[in-house]
Write a structure and sequence with these properties.
This protein is mostly helical. Helices cover about 40% and strands about 5% of the residues. A hairpin with a 2-residue loop joins strand 1 and strand 2. The chain is elongated, with a radius of gyration of 25 Å. The protein starts with 14 loop residues before the first strand and ends with a helix.
Length: about 100
Amino acid sequence: MNDKIARPVNGSYGTINGVEITEEVIARLVKNAEDGFPGATFRAPGRPARTDEPTRAVTVRLSESELSALMARAEREHRSRSEAIRTALSEWARASA
C-alpha cells in the first residue's frame, strides 16, 4: 500500500475549520457532491464581466517611464491601471473618429 494514504486515528482524520473529519462526514460530503450540491448557488468562474460584449486580454509592453506616468495618473484619478488604459484607448479611438 501507499504510505501517503491518510489513515484515521481513533476514527478521525483530523479537523478542518474545527470540524472533525470522520468516515461519516466524508460519506455525507461525497453524497452531497454526487447529488449535485442541492440548494447551493454558484457564481460563474472568472472575473465579473465589465461589458455585454466578449472581452480579450491583451499584453502591451511599456517602458518604465511610460508605466510610471500611467500609474501616476491612474493614482491621481483613483483608477486601476486597467481602467486608466481602457480610458486612454477609448479617448484615443473617439478622437480619430
